[in-house]
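Need residues for this backbone.
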């Protein structure tokens, strides 16, 4: 949307996994997809929210390499059925997406990487070889933070023959109001993100339970997101006797977060590793303090404004340490300055700044 607002014509295509039995050959998968397309390509390639969804036959069970091959198959059919008039192809994620389209397009290829589980994905030597291949094949290789850049350089080593460019994610400041709160009681917590182990959900629930028992029995925790720990959170809250204080809302449209952020007064985000971390920045832009860990992304995005916007803790911190930091925020609220924090963040991650950086990359490629 930021590029479109800058008069750049952008088509967004999203691979959608089309689960396929291992007994079904690639040719048969294509046959069935083509059969759907015979009644009209719009029946095969649906459009939602300005994006076209491309079904890709992925054999189950799958890993990142089989997904990449499935995505390649899906996009191969897509290019066969629909004329492509792009000047540049910009793929998000080296694996599976960048690898999948790299052999199908003749236009300059830009890849942006932002996966937080990249080190795990590339622990498979075959995936590492494929990732190195596509990294060197792309015209421009981009990642979203200096932290992720150092991770990529460490993983790929001397095999990487090109430089890595850093272009951060956009923070949609227009979607969030800067709320001038009268006080910061840290009584209404919020978490937004995937409900998985690596996001620190267990630490979050244990810390909230301790905070209710030791500091503020009236505190509430709103959790927005989906993931494998959804039912576990319900059961944990029931066992600890805090189920009525945990509002487990599932996923919500991004546009609705404004209201949830306006009514909360603290975000607690205890992820061990983030390549960037958008949700904490949205919270800060809303005038809400954040408690998080030094997890890579946080250090590169808001560490320099920590003193007047929240607290960054070591990952070794106990639940007691985290509770103490939250109490310190509520007692030292006079130090908080979210007008200053938001201006600082807008100067680094606004739509215009990021889209201008991308336009510079695109111009260099089409000259």
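Answer:
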């Amino acid at each position: 949307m930021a590029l479109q607002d800058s008069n750049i014509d952008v088509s967004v295509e999203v691979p959608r996994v089309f689960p396929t039995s291992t007994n079904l050959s690639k040719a048969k998968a294509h046959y069935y997809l083509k059969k759907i397309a015979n009644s009209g390509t719009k029946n095969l390639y649906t459009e939602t929210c300005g994006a076209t969804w491309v079904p890709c036959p992925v054999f189950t069970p799958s890993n990142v390499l089989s997904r990449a091959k499935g995505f390649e198959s899906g996009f191969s059919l897509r290019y066969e059925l629909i004329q492509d008039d792009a000047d540049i192809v910009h793929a998000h994620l080296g694996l599976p997406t960048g690898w999948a389209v790299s052999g199908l397009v003749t236009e300059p290829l830009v890849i942006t990487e932002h996966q937080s589980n990249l080190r795990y994905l590339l622990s498979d030597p075959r995936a590492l070889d494929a990732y190195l291949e596509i990294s060197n094949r792309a015209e421009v290789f981009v990642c979203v933070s200096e932290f992720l850049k150092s991770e990529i350089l460490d993983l790929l080593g001397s095999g990487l023959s090109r430089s890595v460019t850093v272009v951060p994610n956009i923070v949609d400041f227009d979607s969030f109001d800067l709320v001038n709160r009268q006080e910061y009681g840290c009584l209404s917590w919020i978490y937004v993100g995937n409900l998985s182990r690596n996001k620190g959900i267990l630490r979050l629930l244990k810390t909230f339970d301790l905070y209710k028992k030791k500091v503020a029995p009236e505190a509430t925790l709103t959790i927005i997101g989906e993931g494998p720990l959804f039912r576990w959170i319900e059961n944990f809250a029931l066992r600890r006797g805090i189920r009525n204080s945990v509002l487990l809302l599932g996923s919500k449209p991004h546009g609705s977060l404004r209201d949830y952020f306006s009514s909360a007064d603290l975000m607690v985000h205890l992820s061990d590793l983030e390549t960037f971390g958008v949700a904490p920045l949205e919270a800060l832009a809303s005038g809400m303090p954040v408690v998080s860990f030094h997890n890579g992304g946080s250090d590169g995005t808001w560490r320099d404004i920590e003193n007047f916007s929240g607290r960054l803790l070591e990952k070794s911190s106990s639940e007691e340490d985290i509770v103490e930091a939250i109490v310190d925020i509520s007692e030292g609220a006079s130090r908080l300055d979210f007008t200053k924090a938001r201006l600082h963040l807008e100067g680094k991650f606004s739509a215009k700044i990021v889209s201008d950086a991308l336009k510079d990359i695109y111009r260099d490629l089409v000259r």
